[in-house]
Structure formats: structure tokens, C-alpha cells
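Usage example:
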Amino acid sequence: MPRETKLFDNLHHYLSNLPVIDCHEHTNLPDQRPRPVDLWALLRDSDLGDDLISAGMPAAVRPKLDWEHAASFLPKVRNTGFFQSLLIAFRRLFDFTAAEITEDNWPALSQNIQAANERSDWYEEVLRRRANIRRILRVQGAEKDPYAVDGRYFSPLIKFDDWVLATKAEEREKLAQSVGGAARSLDEYLDALTHAFEAARSGGAVGIKSLLAYRRTLLHARPTKEEIAPLFARTELTGEEARAFEDFMCHALAERAGEFGLPFQIHVGYGSWQRNIVADANPVLLNPLIENHRNTHFVLLHGGYPFIGEMATLAKNHPNAYLECGWLAYIAPAAYRRAMGEWLDSVPANKLLAFSADCVCIEQTFGALLFTRRLLAQALAEKIEQDGWTESLAQNVAGRLMAQNAVELYQLKAAPEKPSKTRAAAAR
Ligand SMILES: [Zn+2]
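Running the assembly step on the lines above writes:
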């Protein structure tokens, strides 16, 4: 066996036995899954839907995706990471050995997916027994109480974007009232925001999440309180005034995130849903925000694709900037491998979080994890082969990237266990 392959195998085996912290998901809560979860429900809600549309499928078809609608487009997306990561999950979870989904094989696959999702222990089976995921940092969804999620699997990430985007008095009042406050003045509104952070902290949140890159540029000016306070009396704001209000509130969020010890996850780079937000989502635009709030830990999401080098500069310069690299592993697997090659020898090892899938279905999470292990093993093997790393350094870094860094950054209570031999079989 060539040395490279053996090295890769050793590292891949090591990685497959490591406990995992999944740093960013929108996982369907078990009792809030669509009924039934069959192949089409799964694909509809997966990132593959975006690739099918990119390949030419009308976007209006997505909500009613089935074999008839997908048949002519599936062969065109067989090459992508979104497809391949699902395929590998189907292989491991449902013994689906075909290289493509066809008219003949989809009904059985779909039945298997549906039957598995009717098992009461399916989350336990996939997330724990197969994936060895110890905790999922899950973004608040539509559930009534974001803090009431099943603590065996999930720790909440709370969204505060509404507080930034509420430029109308009645919207602000509603938000303030939700935490027992009022919003007749900027001071009252900021007090209410502080209460919302207190509630997040005491409710068990481990961080906050911003999706504002889908709505606006990531560049923030820093208007003063005196400039923003008079806007509260106004019923209509100009575009420029609304932007100044948003900028001010983003700083207010960042400041409180630091005060309350809640890392601030920010979407940067590539976006979903046929919206190319990349030009205004360059992570370097966040530099002033990061520099202004040195006590806040900023977590730049999804590997920041395509801004690989830019991400590295932020994490390398700023002690309070971290790179979460997960979704990238199946948006663009080769970019993940290349990015890891670059980040692993430019950014301190405590600043990288290797895994998340940023999706709703646990089957896709599992496929993304299998991809991540393979790509990370390839990147680490290259460090040993070409850059003089020892195997023990590679293993130490692997443990950090898959779990330890997240445990430290998010102050997660249960420390991950050491790799165990018994997990190895299940992981493969
Ligand atoms: Zn997300």
C-alpha cells in the first residue's frame, strides 16, 4: 500500500472514532418533521433542491418535488457535493448501493427512509450511534419556546436579527414586550435587548446567530446613540436612516454577545435559495465590527466560501475571530480540502471548527459528516506528507477541530469522551 494511502486510512480511522460537536444546524425537531419523511420530503428540504433549480428545474416545482418532476434533472446534479453527500448517507444508512437514483430504485429507498423515520429511536441511531455527535448547536426555528429543545441532542443558538431590522415602532414594541420590556425610547429598547440576552443565557443558549447577510451588507458604520435616539420618534425612516439604525443595533448585539459570553455566529459568503449575496457578504467587511468588540467571539460561518484567504486573515489577525467550516464540505468539497490545507498552517488550531451541515434532515447531516472526515483526513495526510507534521500533531488538531474547540468556545458542559474502540464499527 502506498504510504499516502495508509496515512490517509489511519487518519480517517482516527477521525471516524472521534466524538463530534456539530456547530451549526437547523435540524427538524423529532416531532416537527414533515409527515411522512420519504425520499422526496428529504430532497425537497435538502440543499440538493438548490442544485436541481440551478440545473434548470423550475423553482416552483420544489415544494411538490417527486420522481416525475426530478427525473430529468437528477442526472445533471449527480456530480455535486450536495448530491454525493446524500448518496453516501443513503449507502450507509439504507444499504443503497446504486450510484444514482433511478425509476427502478427510488421506491425502495423512499420506503426505507420513511420506515426509518417512523422508528422512535431514529435520531439516537443516526446522531449518536452512527455519527457519534455529542451535541448539535441548533439555530432557533419556528418552535414556540426555543429553549425547550431536547437537551440530549441540542443546544440553542438564538436569532436576534429582528431586533436589528425592526425600524417600525410597533415591531420594536412587540419585541420589547416579549421580554417584559417597552420600546418608547432607544434606552428602553436597549434595556429590553439586554433582558433578551439574559433570557438567552439563563435559558441555556450557547450562542447567537445572524442571517443578516441575506438582507444587507456586512459593513457596519458606528453611529452614536445621540444620532440614533431621535429616529425613535419617527414613523418612517429613509433607507439611509434605517441602515444607520441597523448598524447601531448590530453593535448593540455584538456588545451584549460579549458581555453575556455568547459567541456571535454570522453568515458570510455563499447563500442559499437562488440568492447570490456574495458581493456584500465578504467576511472582510466585518473587520470594523470585530475590531470594535474585542470581548466578543465572532464565528464566521460555513467556511466563508468563496473567501477562503480572507477568512484566514481575519482569524489570524484577531484573537476574537473563529472560522466555522462545516457547510463548505459539501457545498464544494475540493474547496474545503484546499481551505483546510491553507488554514491548517496559517491559523492557530484553536480557531477552527471543522463540522456542521447547516441543514434540516439528520440524514444529510450524517452524509456531510462522512464527507468532512474524508476531506479533513486528506488535508491532514498532506500536512504530514508534504509539510513535515507529525502524526501526533495531526491527531491533536483533528480532536480540536471535531469537538474540543467547540466545547471550549461555546462553554459546553459535557466534555466529549475519548475515542472509543466500540464506536469504530458503528462509524463505518
Ligand atoms: Zn444556517
